[in-house]
Amino acid sequence: MTQAVLGDDVYGEDPTVNQLEELAAKSIGKPAACLMPSGTMANLAALLVHVPRGGKVVVGNESDIYLYEAGGASVCGGIVYEPIPTQPDGNLALDDLAAVLPPDADDPQFALPGLICVENTHNRMGGQALSQEYLAELKRFATGHGLAVHMDGARIFNAAVATGVSADQIAAHADSIQFCLSKGLSAPIGSILAGEVAFIEKARRVRKMLGGGMRQAGVFAAAGLLALTSMVDRLADDHQLAAQLAEGLAEVDGIDIDPKAVTTNIVLFRVTADGLNDNQFLAAVQQRGLVMGEFGHGRIRAVTHRGLTSADVSAAVAIVADVVRETS
C-alpha cells in the first residue's frame, strides 16, 4: 500500500485503481468494474442505476440489502423494497417472486418492479452458496418478466471455493454483482461493483453523488490487488476451520448446532443451556477473549478468517464449553 503508484481516481488517473478494476472485472466475468469504499455503497449504487424513482426492488426478507443497509434505496432513490420470504438455502422461491409482480403493469396504482436481488453466499442463512441450477432458473424468470438481477456477492469467492464453480460462472447469472475485497479476502477496505460498461458508467456518477468519489485511492486498491491475487484460494482454510468449530461446538452440552449445515466460513448456533441467555453468553466469552455476535432468531454467529489457526478454534471451543459448564 505504501508503494502504490497513485493518481486521481475521480478523473480515472489512478493506475493502481485502474489495474484493480480491470482485474476485478476479469475475475468476475463482467466487461467493467468500479471500486467502491464499501459493499453498502456498491449495492446502493446498483439499485439506483437499475430502478427508477418510484420503482420497486424485490429482496429477501433476510437479505443484507434489506436488513443492514439503512434503507438507502428508499432514502436516496425513492425506491420501494418488496421483501419476500428467504428459503433456508438462501433462495427466493419463484412462486413468491411471481406473487409480488403487479397483475397489470399499466395500472398506475402499482409500483413497478425493476430488479431482483439475491445474496451469495447468504449471510443470514449461514453462509449458504446458491446453486447454479437455481441461479439459471432465477435469471430465466427475471428475463421473462423484464427484470434485472443484482447479486450481492459480498462473499462470492467463498461460494466459488465451496462449490467448485468459478466466480465468473456464478456471476454470469446476474446483470450486476457486488463483492467485498474485505471480509475473507482480507483487504482493510473496499468493494467492487461489476457489470456492463454503460451500467458501470452510470454507477460512477452515482458513486460521486453518494460521496464515494476518491482521490489517491490506489493506497487501498493495492490491498485489493493482493486480495484478488493471493487470498482467494486460502478461503478453503477458513471453511475448514469453520467445520472444525462446528464439530467442536456440537460436542458441547448446552449448544445446539448442525455441523452439516456449515459449508463456508459462517457458523450459526444456539445456546440452549439453562440459565444462560444470548447476551450473557456473549459477554462471558468476550471476557475470555472470544468475540462472536448475536444474529437474530435466537442464534449466535461466529466467522472464521485469515487471522485464526486450528489451535485458536480449539481454544474457542474450550472457552464456550467452560462458559456453558460454569453457568448451567
From TrEMBL:
Record EC number: 4.1.2.5
Alphabetical list of SUPFAM superfamilies matching this protein: PLP-dependent transferases
Key words of the record: Lyase, Pyridoxal phosphate
Residue span, Aromatic amino acid beta-eliminating lyase/threonine aldolase domain: 1-269
Enzyme class, first EC level, given as a word: lyase
Cofactor(s) for this UniProt protein: pyridoxal 5'-phosphate
Listed GO MF terms: threonine aldolase activity
Superkingdom classification of source: Bacteria
Lyase among keywords: yes
Gene3D superfamilies in alphabetical order: Aspartate Aminotransferase, domain 1 (3.90.1150.10), Type I PLP-dependent aspartate aminotransferase-like (Major domain) (3.40.640.10)
InterPro entries: ArAA_b-elim_lyase/Thr_aldolase (IPR001597), Low_specificity_L-TA-like (IPR023603), PyrdxlP-dep_Trfase (IPR015424), PyrdxlP-dep_Trfase_major (IPR015421), PyrdxlP-dep_Trfase_small (IPR015422)
Family that this chain belongs to: Belongs to the threonine aldolase family.
PANTHER family, alphabetized: L-THREONINE ALDOLASE, L-THREONINE ALDOLASE-RELATED
Protein name: Threonine aldolase
